[in-house]
Structures are given as structure tokens and as C-alpha cells.
Amino acid sequence: MAATVTTSASHWKKLAAEVEIPTRAFIDGGLVEAQGGGTFDCVSPIDGRILAQVAACGAADVNRAVAGARAAFDSGIWSRRSPKQRKAVLLRLAALIDQHREELAILETLDMGKPITDSFTVDIPLASECIQYYGESIDKVYDEIAPTGPDAVSMIYREPLGVVAAVVPWNFPLMMAAWKAGPALATGNSVVLKPAEQSPLTAIRLGQLAVEAGLPEGVLQVLPGDGPGAGRPLGLHPDVAMVTFTGSTEVGKLFLRYAGESNMKRVALECGGKSPQVILPDCGDLEAAASAAAWGIFFNQGEVCNAGSRILVHHDVKEEFMERLLRTTAEIRPGDPLDPGTRFGAMVDKTQMDRVMSYIDSGRDEGAELRVGGAAAEVADGGFYIEPTIFDKVTNSMTIAREEIFGPVLATIDFSSEEDAVTVANDTIYGLTASVWTENIDRAHRMARAIRAGVVWVNTFDAGDIASPFGGFKESGFGRDKSLHALEKYTDLKAVWIGLRASAPGASA
Fold first, then answer.
1. What CATH number should be reported for the domain holding residue 166?
2. 3-state DSSP helix/strand/coil percent for the chain, to nearest 5?
3. How many CB atoms lie within 10 A of CB 83?
4. For residue range 211-226, what is the model confidence (pLDDT) as tens digits?
5. β-strands 220-222, 190-194: how paired?
6. pLDDT at 1
7. Does a structural domain hold residue 492?
8. Per-residue model confidence (pLDDT) at position 4
9. Predicted structure pTM score
10. The CATH number of the domain where 365 resides is what?
11. DSSP secondary structure letters along 368-397
């Protein structure tokens, strides 16, 4: 599944000029226009040009897609298909994603602005791996028999919920779609996928590839559109059994409200983060910690829910750590996302760029010390680029230390004791991820348990595997993506109790 980029920038620019841009919704096995005829501009952040006019789905399209998904579910064409048969379809889909890796990578980079090397070697292979993993899981998860007396058998089944609405963000469009659709489809549900309006292209293409792989029509629907137009009707729809959402905490709370206002549908949320990396005085490798700190915030231009946006560093190693951090950051420069040598690309759109710049202004105004960056960058005329930015002498009460910026802005905060570090790390509404850098195994265990986060790394950052669960505490949401645990949220338990006619020992039949 691993991939490397061996082609030149000219190859990717040629492919970018030739690739077919999918523009329509994918409903009941085919591409369709929005019923109201509405469209929105799909703008490439690389240079600000309009790639295409994409269908802007609304309530009528939601009703049609949900009806088709519900009909497919009720028919049993997928929900009651044998595990072996469902497995074969998902494995074919994973293979098709891999076969179309170049096409999907170029669509991802054009749409979202991330470096083509990341799209090709990270996003697309991990999306394929995710679908393959859940395909392989289908015939390896068992139901249960409860321990009862001899007069009864209690069988416990996990059954699919029905229609699952998957609302995914723009920062990892295809990979997040796979994280949701993979386990939801594996467990027999129908899925209505709503990609973010900033990055709809690979999601539409996924719908086409799924049908090519043998997924029955209607089982995976794809609705491009904005939150009010398509997301809200999905959240309120009475035939949607569950919404699984990755995005901002603000929008996550809207889906909780929609669930209460409609049919009490299940909601699973993976929302914002303000992840700390704690650099302790007994950190054994400050160079590795500095590299992890830089790439923990500057990977994907900082547009990562679990970005390590707060560095908590002990004052005994502060000076040496900052020297290494700044040296590493100096090598990270914004560049053309279509150049395989670029490691830091464009912000997703002008709105996000302006939002990040407002946080940089806030850091200056509140007294933080700007050590590097802090300005827009000129890479391509009309594109949206920001320099990697580091603030020092930050207090945890400052806006840049408390709010999710979702951009390349790092806040460094001093501490003097382990207890202080834990207090500051936990002094946030979020609890998605954290990292602890120490050679002391006792301290590592102690701090990992004390920090309130769904994932805590020790002497690394943003490491993981499809087999390891991902999700958060507090206002970072609830429910887990990845691993076999993700299957649980797309199913419900059914107990079937069978009473047996008891016979006395030794009695004849």
C-alpha cells in the first residue's frame, strides 16, 4: 500500500490540466444535478482559480438521497448480504482507490491545497487501507451467546442502524470519508456522505468507484453542498438513524440539537482540539521533540484537528529546545502544492486564511512574542498561503492558546513542574490528543493517565495505525474512529431470548 512520488512537477501539472473534475451529486448509482439547479464555485486554493461549478444540494436532494438509501437498506440488498459477499465488495473498492491513486491525489491537491506528496503518499493510501481493513473485519466479528440457565438461550446480535449520514471535513477529504463509510458499510448500513463544500471532488469520485466495485445502487449516496443547505436537513431527517461528524465543535453542537429536534438519532462527533506537547526536562532527544513539534503543527498547513498547537516546555530545556525548533521551522517554507518537493502548501480558502491571520493579529495584540512567520506568503498569484508561525511567551489565557486556530500557528508556554504541565495541558475545553516527552517510564505513565485526552503519545506525535482508535474527550466529541471499536457505533444490540422446555436429568426425549 505504501507509495512514493517519483514523478516531477511537470507530470502533476499536466495531470492537473487533464483530470476530469466531478461536479454532480451521486444518488442511486448515478451522477445527477441538484434538483433546484443550484451550484457553487469549487475554487482551488493553489491559485484561486475556479475549477468547476459543483451541484449545491439542498433539502429536496437530501430527501431523495435518504429515500434511496433507506429503500436499499430495507430491501436487504446490502444490509442482509452475507459477510463474505460484503467483504469482497469493500476489498474491490480498496483496490480501485489504490488503482486510481494519481487521479484521486491530484483532485485532493487541486481541491484542498495540500502538497501532492502528502495526497499521494498519505491520504489516498490510508483511505484505501481503511476500506480494506473494514472489509477484512466483516467476517471476523462474532455475535454472542449470553450465559443463561438450561431453560433458555439468549443470543446477542449487532444489527446495522439503517441510514447513516456521514458529514466530513475539508482537511483530509477522502481519508475522513473512508473513516466513516468503511465501518458503516461493513456493518450493513446505507450511507449518505456529505463532503465539505470546500473539498467535494474525491467524495463524488468515491461514490462512482463504490458502484464499480459492486456496491448496490443507493447504498452510498454523495451530496455536495454547504452546511445549511445539505447538512442541516440531514441532521433533521427522520429517516436518518445516525449522524457521524468530524469538524468544528460549534457545528458538532448543532448536530446534537438537530438530533433532539427530530428523531433522537445517534450522533458521533470528532470535533476540535488544542493538543499540547509536553517537553519535560528529562526528554532524551530534544532534536526529535523539536521536529515533532514543528511537523505536529505545520503538517497539512496546521489544518489538522489534533495539531500540536500548544508546546509546553520546561524552563530548564527551553532555550535549547527553542533553538532546535526554530532551526527546523526555518526549513519549512510554503511552496507550489503540485511540486513533489513541497512539504507545506496552501490554506484551503481565503476565508480560512483570513481567519488564521486574525488569530496571528490577536497573538500580537495580547502580548505574545512573535518568533517567526506571522505573514501571508506569496507563492502563486491568487493563492492562499501563510508562513509557518511561532509565538513564544504565551500564557494559557491568551486567545491563541485557548481557541482552535486550524492553521500554522504554534504557541509555546513555559512550565516549572510536572504538576503545572498537567494543569495547563488540561486547562482547555478540548481533549483530543496530547504528547509527553520524557525518558522516565514512571512519569510517562503518570502523565499519560493524568492528561484528559483520547490519545496520548509518549516520545512521538501523531503516530498511529488503522487498528488503534482515535477520538476525544470533553468538547472534542465522543465516539471513536478507526479500529474495531468504530464498528460498535454503527450497530445496535439486539437480544433474542429463546425459552426452552426444561427436562429432568435422565428423562427420555
1. 3.40.605.10
2. 40, 20, 40
3. 14
4. 999 999 999 999 999 9
5. parallel
6. 40
7. no
8. 67
9. 0.96
10. 3.40.309.10
11. PEEEE--SB--SSTT---B--EEEES--TT
Task: Identify the active-site residue in 271, 305, 387, 418.
Answer: 305
**Which pLDDT score is estimated for 119?**
98
The pLDDT tens digits of the residues spanning 100-150 come to 999 999 999 999 999 999 999 999 999 999 999 999 999 999 999 999 999
Q: Are 305 and 272 in contact (CB under 8 A)?
A: yes
Q: How far, in Å, CA of 6 to CA of 17, rounded?
A: 19
Range of the domain at 446: 276-458
28 Rama sector, left if φ>0, alpha if ψ -120 to 50, beta otherwise: left
**Is the confidence at residue 505, as pLDDT, over 70?**
no
378 is catalytic: no
Buried-state track 377-409, b at ≥16 Cβ within 10 A, e below 16: bebbeebbbbbbbbbbebebebbbbbbbbbbbb
For residues 55 and 90, membership in a common domain is answered with yes
User: Are residue 139 and residue 62 in the same domain, yes or no?
Assistant: yes
Q: Which of 102, 129, 270, 475 is catalytic?
A: 270
Q: pLDDT tens digits for 291-300?
A: 999 999 999 9
Q: Is 270 a catalytic residue?
A: yes
CA distances from 439 to 339, 418, 505 (A): 39, 14, 63
Query: Are 487 and 479 in contact, with CB atoms under 8 Å apart?
Result: no
DSSP 138: G
Q: Which grid cell is 490?
A: 454503527
Is 498 within a domain? no
**Helices vs strands, H then E, count in the chain:** 17, 22
Total residues found in the chain within this entry = 509
Q: What is the pLDDT of residue 261?
A: 98
- Rounded to 5 degrees, φ, ψ at 248 are -75, 155
